[in-house]
Amino acid sequence: MKDYLQSKLRHLLLLQLFLSFAAGAWAQNIAVTGRVTDDKGEGLPGVTLLLKGTTNGTTTDPSGNYSLNLPSGAGTLVVSFIGYATQEVPVNNRSNINITLAGDAKALEEVVVVGYGTQRKRDITAAVSNISMEDIGEVPASNVTRLIQGQAPGVAVKQKNGTPGSQFEVRVRGISSLGAGSNPLYVIDGFPVGTSVGQNLNPNEIESITILKDAASTAIYGARGSNGVVLITTKSAKEGKVNLSFSADYGIQNIPDSRKVTVLNGPEFAQFKKEAFIDRYRYVNNGKEPALEEIPLGFRFPEQTKYSTNWYDAILNKNAPYADYNLTLSNGKGPVKSVLALGYFKEEGTIIETNYDRISARANLTGEVNKFITVGLNLNGTYSRQRLANTDGRSAVVGSTLIMDPREPIYDDQGNLRPYIVGQDGVFGFPNPVFMLKNINRKRNIADVLSNAYVDITLLKGLKFRTAANAKVTFNNYNEYVPSTIGLPVQQGASGAPPRIATAFEDMVQTYNLSADQLLTYQPELGAEHHLDFMLGYTAQKETARALSGSANTFPDDLVPYLGAGSIRSAGSSEAGWTLLAYLSRVNYSFKDRYLFSASMRREGSSRFGTENKYGNFPAVSVGWRLSEESFMPKYAWLSDLKLRASWGKTGNNDIGNYSHLAFMNASNYILGNAFAPGKVVSQFANSELRWEKSNQLDLGLDLSLLENKIVFTAEIYRKLTNDMLLPIAIPAVSGFTSSLANIGEVENKGVELGLNFNTRIGQVNFRTSPNITFNRNKILAIKGENDMLWFGGFYGGYNVQKVGRPIGMIYGYRKLGIFNTQAEIDAAPKQDGAIPGSMKFWDADGNGVISYDTKDMVEIGNPNPSFTWGWNFSADYKKFDLSVLFMGAQNYDVYRNIEASTMNIDGVFNVLDKVKDRWRSPENPGSNPNHKNSQGGTVDWKWSRESSGRYVYDASHIWVKNVTLGYALPRFKSYIPDTRIFLNASNLFLITNYPGNNPDASIRGGNELNNDDESYPVPRTFSLGARINF
Amino acid sequence: MKKLTAISIFLLSLMQFSCDDDFLVTTDPTRVGSELFYKDQKQVEQALNGVYGQLQGITNTAYIFQEFTSDNTTLDFNPVDRGGAAGWEAFEFSTVNSGNGEISNLWNNYYSALYNINFALEKLSGSTTIDDAAKAPLEGQLKFMRAYYYFNLVQYFGDVVLVTTTLSKPDAAFALLRSPQAEVEAQIEKDLKEAIAGLPDKYNAANAGRVTKGAALSLLGKFYLTQKKYAEAVTTLKQVLPLGYALNLNYADNFDPAKKNGVESIFEVQYQGGNDLGEQSNFMYVFAPRLSGGSITGFANVTPSGRNIPTRDLIAAYETGDVRKDISLKEGYTNAKGEWVPTPFVNKYRHAHTLSGRTDNNWPILRFADVLLMLAEALNEQSGPTEEAHGYLNQVRSRAKLPEVRGLDKNIFRQKVLQERRVELAFENHRWFDLKRTKTPAELAQFMNAYAAKEKANPTVDRGGVIYSTLDYVYEPHEHVFPIPAPQILINEKLSQNQGY
């Protein structure tokens, strides 16, 4: 019996073995292959396919292909991949199974970078806008600030001028300070680099940008958070993927005719001069006409004007090229993940002889030393060079082209550039702008090294410690040589012609910025319902800037444009710096994914503040309620997520000078005994009480997702109160000083932000659109001290006034009522001393019957703050094509077009705008629309035409067709041909506006002297063609 | 695990990172803190030098308020650039209103200088390291400067704010209001008397340019004269006579940079040109006609400002044979094209210099000739035109190669002295104060209107067809003082304004 059983067993075993071999043989026989793609058709590498119930499985290759041997045609494949919904696919005897994975509806697993860490998107209770570079697409950008334009509600990005390589101005939730700066804090990979991101960060190295808007998210940055925080994260390698990509973008820039300012040409200008002469002659001689011989020969016969020069065109580069090349190698396999990136950007400016180029290299490495320790190192080196020109203001290169005499040629008879155009017939003389651009050498070179290093140690389960050290070293070198051949703009007869004394200037500023963070985070395991994490941290930062400068003048010739060759030389050096240290803590808690709570506290000390107020506390708290998870909420299929959130926090602003609370001695020297006697005087009052500018912000938000995230809607309403504003208050001069810094004043910013993200699929077309709109109102609530108004600006150049009860930066001037037609009208009106028929009529604000020739009768004539700003993105893709269009605009705001005080100066000393043909000339000939707000008074006398008045205020509401990109993914015939995408892009394509200037965002004054346009570097339109290749 | 503990301990120890509070204390390494200064005599002397340094800035624009406002000078009218109309030009056309930027700068500069004087005086009197013998001349110089500034201020504005101590907090400034002129004048007198007591008669060559006893005496004499205290004026001014001053034989030597601080000079504001120290003056460039380029200045690539142009009225006032006329002014110049341009200009501060825009000329504040004429005036008012009074007047006239005058009656003598002051001290910033001192506000307005009528009928400089505004050249009695700057009243509403503005 035993034997029988044993032999049976043996048989069974053998049979089993045989069967298993056979099965194995059969398994080896049924090969299943296929490709796993995402819903865009892109191959997904690293996807796991498993035969259900077994351990038989495989993963897809870099192209998404897989190959698996199954024992039978039955069974189910379980296909899973992080971020995608797991699918179960029955084999059904197929040998080729292609699978498309859909994005996980719970892709709110997505993690967003926030201050000092990351947070799951679903847990965020603060107002945070996350921008991923993929959403932005191919935008030709030399500076990272260009990428944020139009992308996030509440963030207004203005391009003040078109200088190649320059930063744009970023404002988060309005201007909240009158005294300290209004720029947000920029943080690169966790390193707060300051209120300027500089020109040296290559936008192609960026993976995502998060903008922290409310106090709950920015309070963790303490006294630098009140203007918002822009978190920039550079690229990191994707898990398991190796990728080499190369992109090349080539484009041209120019100024379209619709955005050029039109002035008179040669014959028209001669005609204008003739008319002006005749009008003046008639006025002085009581209506008598001049004889032809009495008209100066220079414009007696306008039709015979020999030359006609368009100076503005002469300085423009007809098609300025730019090129952007980037090579990125990203390796996500193995214990050390790395991203290596090289970039080269080169741009010719739209004004000739200006350019910008930059070369950058980056290595981002992260490595697992063992299970407990991870280290990371980001190292970036960039070098940029800029050739600059002086382009701001009416006497600079751009402004002067509008007012120079068009009857003068650019070149002389031999074909050489004329260095100086001497004024004729009373017109001002000017240096030839083309000559200036070619001969004045102004260069700026900036070399940057930015490095972040950290060590993450997992001390216990859930307890992590990170120590990080960051450093940024910048060398910024500027040099300038103005040769003796450059003249000055002067009135006729005065001497401005070359040769003049040549000057040279050079400076080098070295900035060292170092910071160290120690962060301890603890995330206890509390089961599925509770999610809790704590963070405790300590950070210290120090910045020092050392400057060395030299200047020289009186050179023997222009052959050696270096300081050593000048006969009179002087040099100087200086040093300045600041330090800060802070203790931070934060707790995040969520219960059942339904109730969310977050609180943070930062205690910060800064060297910039008075001894009595060195430290400040910055708490913040925010809560969220996921209504869609509540049991009482009916489970609608279309409702994916509904979350309400509220936050409150206190942040600060420390952006005043480094040593403002101290009083120093300034030099005030004399001569005694015929020798130099050095002396000192006191510079300002010391203020030991100088403290933070405080901002309290309350924010309410709503996040709504519908139809499995096809529609995502976000709304915010906020109120930010800034008090203890750091202001130079005017104090009575009898104190010895005219102003002193103190913490006074209060400003309120409140607003609403709405953003919508909609994506859908219509047939074979994927369609996405995302509009956003921001309404922000600011109001000055108090300016303590004895004055309620702060005036900035000038009598002839436009005033910006800060007044209690009104928004920041209101434009002030005389209110224009019309143009005086006759002497009778002048006599009937309040006394305007010096007014003659043709003068503008102004309103008597104080009602005393006299228009006084100072600011007493000046009132609000414009509001530079828009009613709302908006952006709207459309993108669609169809098979291999994709198209994306971005619109953006601002509505209902004013700009003081200061340049028109010169370009509409009809004294005859400058060239004038085309529309001068429609000016008032006499009661019988008042122009087609003399009652128009911006009509030009015609006046024989100079008075009452150039004073700050409403005549120069224009509504700059506009709509930009900002970006249009058309892309095409080249078909791949063979697997060795790399993934290539080519794209066409048009940037700044159309501007729809009534504003007469080139750029409705132009402003040459800084700070809160808003929207004063005196011409600056024009903003071009760009067309480009590029390709991105993934190997 | 051991390895892990070791590493974590090591890293936690890294947290002991500059927890020092000193980490947050930084100061500007390029400047000295004011609380650290004024510790010893050398530093106080530097502070005094600083006070003198501010005098240069104030003197650079003083002509606008002391000469330009009068009938001595006008401007080289620029028909195409009307940018200055609301500012400095208003002083010529008597259209100064409280919003005028130049008045505001004047006020601010004076009080800034007074702050530093007060600060230095406080530190001096509280100092234990400086001995009294060294303190006296330093205090004397500071008090003279204070008195000089307040004397100018009351003549400019009438009642002004009197500040003799420094404030520790800016808020306290709001309580400071205008004191009656008499109070300020009492302070001036006190300061000058104390200065006289402490100042030396002379300094060695290394200290040439400092305030001397003679300067304090002369200023006090002028002060008494302005207050119509003729007896005191005479006694005070007579104390200047034995101090070693004398008239230069050559009138031109008073202004020659090669002969600075000479025997006739009582107090001059010091400058130095020809180098890069930043201590140069440039009066020539401000006073030369706009289109003269290098014809007057000697450097072609410059644009002079055309301010302070001698009027026809003044040119006509010089008697024939007066050597001072040609030294003080010229009636025209030859431009680069060789044409004669009949625009007159101030010649007193025109001397050769090596670097463009940097002249070496000092500015005379007090000269011995001034003292002699003041004595003549005071004696006349006190006891009539005595021999002695005539003597002083004639000393000045003789130097100018003019015939002496004899036996004039009181009124004519008075006019003669005023006229002599006009031509002797032309363009030295005396005329406006002389007119204010010798005329009542109503008389002054009448006088200036008469001048205006002449100037309008026959302008010294062609206006290029630009007509006068109706308010131009209309003098009213209240305009004998300037308005308090509007920004100051905006800041402190309690500050009062002068009548009429």
From TrEMBL, chain A:
Compositionally skewed regions (Polar residues) per UniProt: 925-938
Secretion signal span: 1-27
Membrane topology classification: Multi-pass membrane protein
Predominant localisation class: membrane
Compartments, as annotated in UniProt: Cell outer membrane
Superkingdom of this protein's organism: Bacteria
Residues in TonB-dependent receptor plug domain copies: 121-229
InterPro entries noted in UniProt: Beta-barrel_TonB_sf, CarboxyPept-like_regulatory, Plug_dom, Plug_dom_sf, TonB-dep_OMP_SusC/RagA, TonB-dep_OMP_SusC/RagA_CS, TonB-dep_rcpt-like
Annotated region (Disordered), positions in chain: 920-941
Keyword Signal carried by entry: yes
Keywords: Cell outer membrane, Membrane, Signal, Transmembrane, Transmembrane beta strand, Transport
Any GO CC annotation of this UniProt entry: cell outer membrane
Family the entry assigns: Belongs to the TonB-dependent receptor family.
Protein name: SusC/RagA family TonB-linked outer membrane protein
